[in-house]
Write a structure and sequence with these properties.
With 374 residues, this protein is α/β, with parallel strands linked by helices. The protein is 35% helix and 17% strand. The chain contains 13 helices and 13 strands. It has a seven-stranded parallel sheet with strand order 3-2-1-4-5-6-7, sandwiched between helices. A six-stranded parallel sheet has the order 10-9-8-11-12-13, with helices on both faces. Strand 11, helix 10 and strand 12 form a beta-alpha-beta unit. Helix 1 crosses helix 13 and helix 7 runs parallel beside helix 8. The protein is globular and about 65 Å long.
Length: 374
């Protein structure tokens, strides 16, 4: 980065920040922290409350870790309470950032972002969009999304799939400002070494917030087929369930998988993440739809290969046969076949070594430099 005058440059982030849970919060924090490492002044403008309980059936929205965020953070507004929005405007104006980066992923937040940004006429605003098309249906979703994104001087997306969605779904005045970046790889203490799982058991990992579109049901339907060929296989499921977990318990019972599935239906704190990945030889993403995925970045952080559905932008982060494999979505048989092949060919050591080389091109510093180059 250009070190000239960097101590005078102020960057603000609008959206979730730790201790709020979730990949969007963690992404913003990692990027903000990278700017801070490079000497820029950084402040995160976050929520007093993020979701009403009615639309967030996943339990607690914050972590209990007091040290989750070591950056200057102001929790000042609630996206579903319009009378709080002006507090965010005042906070941003008082900080007077040279650049405001807004985390966008759901139409639910769009009205508040649109209102806040419309009152920041003297501030350069970049939107960082994790999704253009929401995984769930939202009333007037496209309308409020476009209201928010029209404030963006630049709209940054993280996959070619998202870029395609921007050109197909957004008005030209917004889509022409869209630029393609990438999802960095999360760092870990295994960046320079191949992970050696703690057990000889062939462990599969399903990781992250569990929503219907992420296809855990597909993986559970594939497991009986896997076990016929790989009887020592075990599935570890680690993540908070959005809504009810009954459908997954039912599938486990119907397929007699109780002895073969290790369930951790809860929020996984940062210190625990490594423990789960180090127990496994492969991470499975049987998604039914997707843009990009922070789970792939997390898996690569621990040099663990992935098997993922060929949907959305997932394939852009998987080198077929080198860092992982792609399978058709909604196809338990094809998924099982690829899992069996992976273990039969003993792909883990070779692929883990390839991931170490691959991820060197996807650093947080490189993304920060790219954003500033705009």
């Amino acid at each position: 980065m250009n070190k000239n005058n960097e101590s005078k440059i102020r960057i603000a982030f609008l959206g979730p920040a730790p201790p709020y849970r979730g990949g969007i919060s963690q992404f913003a924090f990692m990027l903000a922290r990278e700017f801070g490492k490079e000497g820029y002044q950084v402040k995160m403008i976050s929520f007093l409350k993020q979701y009403p309980a009615l639309i967030f059936p996943g339990g607690e929205q914050k972590t209990n870790t007091s040290a989750a965020n070591d950056l200057e953070t102001a929790e000042v507004f609630t996206p579903y309470l319009p009378w709080t929005w002006n507090k965010a405007v005042k906070e941003i104006r008082a900080y007077a950032p040279d650049l405001l980066i807004v985390s966008y992923w759901l139409p639910f937040f769009a009205p508040s972002f649109a209102w806040i940004c419309s009152r920041l006429n003297k501030t350069r605003i970049f939107f960082l969009a994790h999704n253009i098309q929401s995984h769930e249906k939202w009333p007037m979703g496209s309308l409020v999304r476009n209201m928010a994104l029209r404030s963006a001087e630049k709209l940054i997306v993280l996959s070619q799939n998202c870029l395609n969605d921007a050109h197909k779904q957004l008005p030209l005045r917004i889509s022409r400002r869209t630029v393609l970046a990438f999802h960095p790889i999360y760092s870990s203490d295994t960046d320079s070494q191949i992970v050696r799982p703690d057990t000889e058991t062939k462990n599969l990992l399903f990781f992250g917030l569990i929503k219907p579109y992420k296809g855990l049901d597909i993986l559970l339907k594939a497991m009986p087929l896997v076990l016929r060929s790989i009887p020592e296989a075990r599935l570890i499921v680690a993540g908070d369930v959005y809504g009810t977990s009954e459908v997954y318990h039912q599938l486990i019972g119907e397929n007699k998988l109780e002895r073969f599935v290790d369930l951790h239906f809860r929020y996984i704190s940062d210190p625990e993440i490594g423990e789960f990945f180090r127990r496994c030889q492969i991470c499975i993403l049987p998604y039914k739809s997707a843009t990009q995925s922070g789970v792939i970045a997390s898996s690569y952080a621990f040099n663990i290969p992935v098997i993922a559905s060929d949907v959305g932008g997932l394939g852009e982060y998987i080198l077929e046969g080198i860092t992982g494999y792609l399978v058709p979505p909604n196809d338990p048989e094809a998924l099982a076949e690829q899992i069996i092949s992976y273990f039969k060919k003993q792909d883990f050591p070779r692929m883990s070594a390839e991931i170490i080389k691959y991820k060197a091109n996807f650093s947080w510093k490189a993304l920060a430099e790219f954003i500033l180059s705009l």
